[in-house]
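Hi team,

As requested, here is the filled-out complex form for the 1-[(4S)-2,5-dioxoimidazolidin-4-yl]urea run. I kept the field names the same as last time so the parser does not choke. Let me know if anything looks off before we queue the next batch.

— J.
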Amino acid sequence: MDIKKVNSMDFGEFVDVFGNVIERCPLIAAAVWSQRPFSDLEDLKKHFFAFIDALPQSGQEGILRCHPDLAGSELRRGTLTAESQREQSGAGLTTLGADERLRLAELNAQYRARFGFPFVLAARFSDRAAVSRELARRLLCPSAQELRTALGEVKKIGSLRLADLLRADPAKL
Ligand SMILES: NC(=O)N[C@H]1NC(=O)NC1=O
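And here is what came back:
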């Protein structure tokens, strides 16, 4: 799909295609559509991220809360979005042993209790060992820093999803 095709999309089509660039936040795609035309993929990405950056803290935390836990109950129940399922499965989180799953569940619960939102990490840049390690490390970070880190991960996930949709090289995004 090229940028001309993107710019020709009506509202419904645009939200259908880009509605999950930011996990379970189709409102962001709905808002970005109003900014068309886009000059290129980079420009499109900038609009998604500018929307996130302009939100008050409550909105930014809301975005994080729309993310399913890594290796959490949604994965077990099979209710993840297709994108999240692919990302979690690529990081090996669908084939954890019982011990590993339990450890991640405990760390996820501690993280949520401390910060009030779920632990978010771009799983495609990670693997099962790195997820636990990073979760344990970030649990100790100051809250303001952690909010920034988590939103950075949301943007990495969004960049990769946009790259998939436009079949671009993620390194150039
Ligand atoms: N909790 C969390 O990070 N979830 C996200 N990460 C990712 O790569 N896909 C997701 O759904």
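Two things worth flagging: The mean pLDDT is 95. Residues 23, 67-70, 84, 87, 118-124, 157 surround 1-[(4S)-2,5-dioxoimidazolidin-4-yl]urea (CB under 6 Å).

Thanks,
J.
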